[in-house]
Amino acid sequence: MDSISTAILLLLLALVCLLLTLSSRDKRKLPPGPRPLPLLGNLLLLRSQNMLTSLTQLSKEYGSVYTVHLGPRRVVVLSGYQAVKEALVDQGEEFSGRGDYPVFFNFTKGNGKHRLLQWDRWKKHEERILEEAASAGRAAKTEGEPFDPTFVLSRSVSNIICSVLFGSRFDYDDERLLTVIRLINDNFQIMSSPWGELYNIFPSLLDWVPGPHQRIFQNFKRLRDLIAHSVHDHQASLDPRSPRDFIDCFLTKTAEEKEDPLSHFHMDTLLMTTHNLLFGGTETVGTTLRHAFLALMKYPKVQARVQEEIDLVVGRTRLPTLEDRAAMPYTDAVIHEVQRFADIIPMNLPHRVIRDTAFRGFLIPKVPGHRFIITLLNTVHYDPAVLTPRITSSYLTTAPHPATPAGRRLCLGESLARMELFLYLTAILQSFSLQPLGAPEDIDLTPLSSGLGNLPRPFQLCLCPR
Ligand code: HEM
């Protein structure tokens, strides 16, 4: 071997040593976790239960910050109030990236730029919410006949976000509204099932496998077409001086910034952002209300006490308003408690660090594509260290719950959701009592499935006029 070959060989050896040292140093700083198998990662540890239970169990073994391999993807998992708060609130800036979520991302291609929008105009929609809540009550007034509230609630709640986005509400039997609800409901169910979870782990593989997950993208496409149709109508009648709704505001901004090559305001962003708001604004609140109905039927004394407070503060001759809330601490606490125990997005949406981040003595590197962070909101909502007493048959505390999402990347619809939950519950309980079909103690509050969402078990109830 001549001296040049020897030098090249030595150089290569040195390079390999350097890479090995760097990668093991990187690993040393990563939070601990189970040893992964090639390709499968730690899937064998996760196979027997649902993902949430498995990840929670692993946190008991590896601590509140650990690393797990979902197939080939390396993921950092945070659990418990303290760790999640330190990441999302105390180091909110670093943890504010959005992690990969293939069931969404393969459709949106990252075009849902919610964070560009400072959408703080929900308050002016109070009247619309009350109208919808009252219409839902009327629609559900089936002379005390039992009915499943899912569809009535989705239709009504979805109509609120539709009027914010599209400028007008739909009639309850309008085919466009019914289609939106059917598609979103179907997708939320699939995403909350094992198929949705599996897709998030092996998207490229699952693209080739038949199954219900294939419907997710057909459904998304149909929603997108529906939105595109409405945007087209808006363009034809746009008056930038008097925007009628969210789409008009967005189109106006797009026109203002059309010369700016860095602008995020363009058609794809509009379609995806509208889609994400429609999705977020439809299923979440309806699902929380169904959890609330079940809890209030299981604990009739709590329901009666909320009604007493409504009678005292609002009376029966006018509808409740947001101003009443401050004078209704018990009702307010019930809603907080429902949100906590319903825990409807139990594993949060995935986050990502926007730069290499030191966290609790570990280093969480910013590596595009492969790593993301799961914050187990479920373990926050059920953390024994901060847990407030639950609803019981006789009482409920007014202590605030450790509500999340929190930090820099917030739920864009949070204040709208809070308004909706308060106005719907009070408007319905003002006029009706919720009656279960069987004995209250037989009501099962455990969720039917937990993936993206915690879905309550299907049920029927009667609305009995008070
Ligand atoms: C009870 C009702 C709701 C709950 C529990 C809820 C929960 C959440 C959670 C956990 C996140 C992820 C936050 C994070 O990444 O840390 C989120 C994000 C989001 N939510 Fe909500 N949400 C609710 C209602 C709504 C409503 C009514 C809308 C629409 C008007 C909405 C629109 C969104 C959007 C667009 C995002 C993505 C924000 C981003 O990526 O920057 N949500 N929500």
Describe the structure.
- There is one protein chain.
- The protein has 466 residues and is mainly α.
- The chain folds into 2 domains: 107 residues, no CATH class; 317 residues, Orthogonal Bundle (Cytochrome p450).
- The protein contains 17 helices and 11 strands.
- A 3-stranded mixed sheet has the order 1-2-7. Strands 3-4 form a two-stranded antiparallel ribbon.
- A hairpin with a 2-residue loop joins β1 and β2.
- α7 packs antiparallel against α13, α13 packs across α15 and α13 packs parallel to α17.
- The chain is globular.
- It starts with a helix and ends with a strand.
- About 5% of the residues have low confidence.
- Protoporphyrin IX containing FE binds next to α13 and α17.
Which tags fit this structure?
binds protoporphyrin IX containing FE, Cytochrome p450, mainly alpha, 466 residues
Quick description:
The chain is built from 17 helices and eleven strands. With 466 residues, it is mainly alpha-helical. It has two domains: 107 residues, no CATH class; 317 residues, Cytochrome p450 (Orthogonal Bundle), CATH 1.10.630.
